[in-house]
């Protein structure tokens, strides 16, 4: 049994453990404004608003892709669909602006666009959003009728309209939402069962460890931005699903002055401000990792544990000498990120263990760090090649180098020969040009639908040179 707030009222549901939010809305609630377009979180036609509280009790309004979000991940949270924005004859400010600016074209994508902008509106507390905020909010929404200009006009003027009615479902949610109230009891370890499937929603790591002791091969569901596709496109299901979103300790960021520790459930959006302060080159590529809807769900720990060779964060963590902490009922152990990836989509996680946290050393005054991602589209696209480079610098020399790539092998890997070629060299463009010649010794990439092996080798070498141009300021 799960409990969540939908459009103004608390609901209790016993649902199929593999049911997505979108399928629930359209088949159980007959709320059909959200559409299935791509079934992969790319187009935004399915966008809805998830509402949660942070540890200080402040409400957070997040646009998410309902097509790949597990219904169980709403347990203890709120959900607002487009149908819950207006009340009687009073439209929500976003809806009114869309109408007045003639921003609705055929209507297929409009509900998702309205949901994204409504999440922005409430995050800004009804104040004006700048163009960067607007473009970020809409980065995961397609308009198949190419009506972008009036949509942007609506986004720029939505704050000028009267606030939502107090009796509107989204206002009722704001007034009544309290997931830790006695009216919403804590989730027990009794599973939601559907024939051969079992769903568990632990609230503590102790409960999680006990579950993994009993079900060591259970599917751990974090943000689901990749696992969701196994349901919507591969039509696969797991016998045991453990949904992690209720475990607060996994969603914390800790800064001890020398390192930053990211709990496995920290989302990309949650990590933004910390990354901007400590690792600005990392923060710079966040807009290149999916859309805002994806970054609101996707987690750092999930991206690492998934062990995709084209995952965006593993090469970055490799270059930064990060460590992962693994936990189980038998205790914890810490291993270097270098030792974590053991093969194609394989890791050092043992049965019964889970990735608890990622610890990243802060950059020193003599270290320089950069990240570059190459993909077919600027936004919301998978990496063809991603390079992360960290240098330790002397007065005019490169003391040592850490260079890591994604998309070049079966696992994220260091470019060992390239690192050796940079170490001890003068800080000049020529040093980077010579080091780039070592890339074919480091990697033997494959041809696939995203790029040929030859293209990947050329791009990987050029990124080394680009880093040289960046740090030396030399002219190309």
Walk me through this protein's architecture.
This is Xanthine dehydrogenase small subunit. Keywords: FAD, Flavoprotein, Iron, Metal-binding, Oxidoreductase. This protein has 476 residues and is of the alpha+beta class. Among the domains are: 2-83 and 174-243, Roll (Ubiquitin-like (UB roll)), CATH 3.10.20; 93-163, [2Fe-2S]-binding domain (DNA polymerase, domain 1, Orthogonal Bundle), CATH 1.10.150.120; 367-472, CO dehydrogenase flavoprotein, C-terminal domain (Enolase-like, domain 1), CATH 3.30.390. It is 30% helix and 21% strand. It contains 17 helices and 20 strands. Strands 2-1-5-3-4 form a five-stranded mixed beta sheet. It has a five-stranded antiparallel beta sheet with strand order 10-11-16-12-13. The model is unreliable at 180-188 (pLDDT under 50).
What are the salient characteristics of this protein?
5-stranded antiparallel beta sheet; alpha+beta; Ubiquitin-like (UB roll); 21% strand; 476 residues; 5-stranded mixed beta sheet; DNA polymerase, domain 1; Enolase-like, domain 1
> Quick one: CATH class of the domain at 2-83 and 174-243?
Alpha Beta
CATH architecture of the domain at 2-83 and 174-243: Roll
CATH fold group of the domain at 2-83 and 174-243: Ubiquitin-like (UB roll)
Shape: globular
Please report which band the strand proportion falls in: under 5%, 5-15%, 15-25%, 25-35%, 35-45% or over 45%.
15-25%
Q: Strands of the biggest beta sheet: in what spatial order?
A: 2-1-5-3-4
Q: Residue share in helices? A: 25-40%
Structural class: alpha+beta
Tell me which oligomeric state these chains represent.
single chain
- The value of Rg in angstroms is 23 Å
Mean pLDDT: 92
Largest beta-sheet details: 5 strands, mixed
Find the CATH superfamily of the domain at 2-83 and 174-243. Answer: Beta-grasp domain
Unreliable stretches, pLDDT < 50, 5 or more residues? Answer: 180-188
SS field, number of helical segments: 17
Say how many strands there are.
20
Pfam families: CO_deh_flav_C, FAD_binding_5, Fer2, Fer2_2
Organism: Kistimonas scapharcae
Protein name: Xanthine dehydrogenase small subunit
Domain 2Fe-2S ferredoxin-type: 1-85
């Amino acid at each position: 049994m799960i409990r969540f707030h939908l459009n103004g009222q608390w609901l209790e549901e016993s649902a199929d453990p593999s049911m997505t939010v979108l399928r629930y809305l359209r088949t159980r609630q007959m709320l059909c404004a959200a559409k299935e377009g791509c079934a992969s979180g790319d187009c935004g036609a399915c966008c809805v608003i998830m509402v949660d509280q942070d540890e200080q009790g402040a409400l957070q309004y997040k646009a998410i892709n309902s097509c790949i979000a597990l219904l169980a991940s709403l347990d203890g949270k709120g959900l607002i669909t487009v149908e819950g924005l207006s009340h009687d004859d009073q439209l929500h400010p976003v809806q009114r602006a869309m109408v007045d600016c003639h921003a609705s074209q055929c209507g297929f994508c409009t509900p998702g666009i309205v949901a994204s902008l409504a999440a922005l509106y409430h995050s800004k507390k009804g104040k004006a959003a700048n163009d960067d905020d607007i473009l970020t909010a809409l980065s995961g929404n397609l308009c198949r009728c190419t009506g972008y200009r009036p949509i942007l006009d609506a986004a720029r003027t939505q704050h000028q309209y009267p606030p939502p009615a107090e009796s509107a479902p989204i206002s009722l949610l704001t007034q009544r939402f309290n997931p830790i109230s006695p009216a919403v009891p804590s989730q027990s370890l009794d599973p939601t069962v559907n024939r051969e499937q079992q769903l568990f929603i632990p609230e503590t790591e102790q409960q999680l460890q006990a579950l993994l002791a009993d079900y060591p091969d259970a599917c751990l569901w974090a943000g689901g931005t990749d696992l969701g596709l196994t349901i919507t496109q591969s039509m696969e299901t797991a016998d045991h699903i453990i949904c992690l979103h209720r475990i607060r300790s996994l969603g914390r960021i800790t800064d001890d002055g020398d390192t930053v520790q990211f709990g496995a459930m920290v989302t990309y959006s949650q990590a933004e401000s910390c990354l901007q302060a400590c690792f600005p080159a990392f923060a710079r590529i966040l807009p290149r990792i999916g859309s805002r809807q994806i970054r609101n769900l996707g987690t750092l720990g999930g991206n690492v544990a998934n062990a995709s060779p084209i995952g965006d964060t593993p090469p970055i963590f490799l270059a930064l000498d990060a460590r992962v902490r693994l936990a189980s009922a038998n205790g914890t152990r810490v291993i270097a990120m270098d030792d974590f990836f053991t093969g194609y989509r394989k890791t050092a996680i043992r049965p019964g263990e889970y990735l608890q946290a990622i610890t990243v050393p802060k950059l020193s005054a003599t270290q320089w760090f950069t990240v570059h991602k190459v993909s077919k589209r600027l936004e919301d696209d998978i990496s063809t090649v991603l390079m992360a480079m960290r240098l330790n610098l002397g007065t005019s020399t490169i003391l040592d180098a850490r260079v890591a790539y994604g998309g070049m092998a079966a696992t994220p890997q260091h470019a060992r020969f390239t690192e050796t070629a940079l170490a001890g060299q003068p800080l000049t463009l020529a040093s980077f040009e010579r080091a780039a010649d070592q890339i074919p010794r480091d990697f033997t990439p494959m041809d696939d639908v995203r790029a040929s092996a030859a293209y990947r080798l050329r791009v990987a070498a050029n990124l080394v040179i680009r880093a040289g141009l960046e740090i030396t300021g030399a002219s190309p």
